[in-house]
Amino acid sequence: MLKMENILENVESPLLFLVEERVKTFKHWPFGSNDKCNVRNMAEAGFYSVATGKEDADSAKCFLCGKELDGWEPSDDPWAEHKSHAAKCAFVQLGRREDELLLSEFLSVIKQYMINERKRVAELAKEQIDERAKLVKRHLSRK
Ligand SMILES: [Zn+2]
């Protein structure tokens, strides 16, 4: 039997498919609650903050398609921006907040998120292995 808790246990990365988890990432978001692209609207449209400092304070990324956007204007609508820059995103195509999704839709979002995460982790691992292999080769050719 497939249970929600069991599914969540298998996700090692932050639970960014949950809107409240995305809200938490916007620590230094330069826009206020009266702006169209406020934290709540950003998070509901699938974005989380990937800011590392002041210069990229308005960098945000979609948890599902990975599209990264910055240069936000106060009047920007996060859903509209998401749609115009990543029309193929599965979250954009559902086009609704998580709490408005059917369970089956939400599960498919989580599944896609987990597949993407696995791919990302696998790519990172491959890069590290390639890097190691290069070092070993260089080391051997010196002898
Ligand atoms: Zn997206």
From TrEMBL:
Pfam families: BIR (PF00653)
SMART domains linked to this entry: BIR
Keyword flag Repeat: no
Tagged with keyword Metal-binding: yes
GO molecular function: metal ion binding
Top-level taxon of origin: Eukaryota
Gene3D superfamilies: Inhibitor Of Apoptosis Protein (2mihbC-IAP-1), Chain A (1.10.1170.10)
Alphabetic keyword roster: Metal-binding, Zinc
Protein name, as recorded: Baculoviral IAP repeat-containing protein 5
